## 1
Amino acid sequence: MRYWVFFILPILIFSTPAFAQTLESDSFSDFSEYVLEIDGREYSISYAVNANVIAMQLDSESKSLLIGLDDTYDSQFFIGLEHELINAENNEFIILVDGEEVDYQITSDSESSTFEFFVPIGSEEVEIIGTHVIPEFPIGAVFGFVVMISSVMLFAKMKPSFFKL
């Protein structure tokens, strides 16, 4: 009998190269980088997608990150975001591609989250919605509040004559 087949067959099966390419979310070497400046601080956002990213904007009212795309082809979108920039309770984000909710996979550590989701050809906008974004309460509002309280305290202390009857 031909027993050599039992030796050659496993070698052929287990040594055949795999043609699928895996992209590890921890390895950002092939990723592009977008620098988003908020209140004088720069946040580096690493991403990979078969499209042109034309803009990223943080919307503190809707607690979301908006991403504008151009020349989009069917592809997986990988993006790494710091928890300080955008976060959600129990990692329950909502991701919309052109207004339609999509399924995503998330990998998180103590400092950041990496998202993976599909964007179809012709997509123009991605919105990642969380429960907290920076700045949650802008520093300008704090400064205005302090000025307002100080003014009230000064007027109360001075008791201007036009307040007297």
Note: The first strand starts at residue 32 and ends at 38.
## 2
Amino acid sequence: MIVESGIVPVVRTESAAGAIQAIQAIYRGGIRAAEITMTVPGAIQALEKVADEFGDRMVLGAGTVLDPETARACMLAGAVFFVTPSLKLSTIEMVKRYSKVMMPGALTPTEILTAWEAGADAVKVFPCGNVGGAKYIKSVKAPFPHIEMVPTGGVNLETAPEFLKAGACAVGVGAELIDSANIRAGKFEVFEHRARHFLEIIAKARAEMGAAFQKN
């Protein structure tokens, strides 16, 4: 579902209630996956509530998972994919032991390859925007065409197509999709509109990529 939609919404909010309402909004906008970060107060409870509400209709993930113990707790709460900000092999091992989807964070070529060889389903390249953005993805995809990469950091409506065309299988989007200011203002409809817009530009980029491939 993540690769199909091409987007991993990173839900990093100031409250569990805000996270839940934000996910409800992006669901209405057509997105069927969401990552609740462990920096959200009451994140485990938020995972449980979203899992209960949406069931199989939403692919639910846990983000900013720093250790295997947290991964297991999130798993029991309903998370089916796991994202880390850095490379920790014991966390990958825990997640794969239960046959769940793992997207560890990595940045350098060595970290990216290590993560993949340890069993990652895709590698979260973070913070991608600070090291060249789409150009960096294109560079590291050259020696690692077989490694699925999800750039996070620096992804917005303008750059998302560039990341996909550079070889990313999906993009991680945080505040450009769900931001604290609109949550505080109760303007959750903004996230619904943004979700639709992101899906539209991703679909357009992939269509252009397909057309270019056919020409070649």
Note: The longest helix spans residues 189-215.
## 3
Amino acid sequence: MAATKPSKPSASANKTATAKKGASRSRRSALWELRLYVAGMTPTSVRAFENLKKLCEEHLQGVYRIHVIDLLERPKLAHGDQIIAVPTLVRRLPTPVKKIIGDLSNAERVLVGLDLRPAGSWR
């Protein structure tokens, strides 16, 4: 089997890659508004918050705001973000809105779900 030499990316491909990197950087520097919906201080809720805080500190370095919403105290707030399970993380900003259900223990899936990593990178 003959080996082929990888082709050099075209100038337009380099511009696209550079634009994507720039967009990724600007997306990370914009304020991230995250809502974590929980139902009381259960072990799963606490674990979800700890996992989220750790990911934010590692990947968003100070440009994030986390709002923890306890649906036992404020159940009507579930309607606004169409919450059907808890814990649920809702990324309000940057748009588009994204939702992730669970304790956020699979860091790679959470990063992909938040658009901090490209899809398919966690497999």
Note: Helices lie at 11-29, 43-59, 77-80, 107-113.
## 4
Amino acid sequence: MWAANATDPNGLTLRAALVVSAILIFITGLAVPHAFGAEATWFAVTYAGVRFIHLALYADASRRGNASWAAIAGFGVTVLIGMALLIVGSFFDGAVRALLWVAAAAIDYAGPAWLTRERLAGLQEVAVAHFAERYGLFIIICLGESIVAVGVGASGRPLDSELVAGITIALLITVGMWWTYFDRIAADAEEHLRRHDNPVLAAADGYSYIHLALVAGIIVFAVGVKVAIAHIGDPMSDAARLCLCGGVALYLLGHAAFRLRMTGSLEVAKLVAAGGMMIVFAVTGRAAAWVPALGVSVVLAALTIREAAEVTSRT
């Protein structure tokens, strides 16, 4: 999205890059289940192709005066090193591949915001409304996937009062997660980004990096809630219960970190709520799956009610 933000949205260059990238990343996704097996090279080469197209878009934006070549050259080196390690690692097996790929991911992700941070500050102008809208859409898409997970967990089971209650609880949790993002924090972050001394670094930290925790939390929760719905009357395994409770906890911690980076204020209530999720995990080991789900929904409901009351008191 950063590179697209610096290029002409109606230009053939961007459209061609998006088409080729879509094809490559689709193949990458197909290779993921066997990325540590026979399809490692397909995974590595197609993903690297997307990263190189990203650099090419930035080079074109720099040529047109819409991005800083010094910044691009800085993190471009880390991209080349990271992708080289990714491709080379695909030809090895076991621990060697894992180590090379971990190094590739670390270098590629750390390049822009940490290894070349001083150069990154002058990368480009930040279209604030565009950034806030697009990353908000990412959150909505992920929350939609969690709803799909609820449906998958319920598929093939006859509808009864227990299943309907479990589905209702799961959807209420999803609504609560949506509420915590869009009720205040999305608009607050956008407003502070408009007035930030260094919007590029703030956007990179808050949206490109900290949002990974938000997305990861939703995805982990989706794994747990799918299992919970599929076995709503039975105890969950520790791993599944940890996904259910820990996913929402990670999501809330990501929220707290996002607000702290964007506005400078720490939301203690979200930290307390994240701790509450882990308490639910700890005390529901032998309970039916609907019990930890209900516990998560109660903690999340308490948080949203508190935040709604706080907004009302301010107005």
Note: The mean pLDDT is 89.
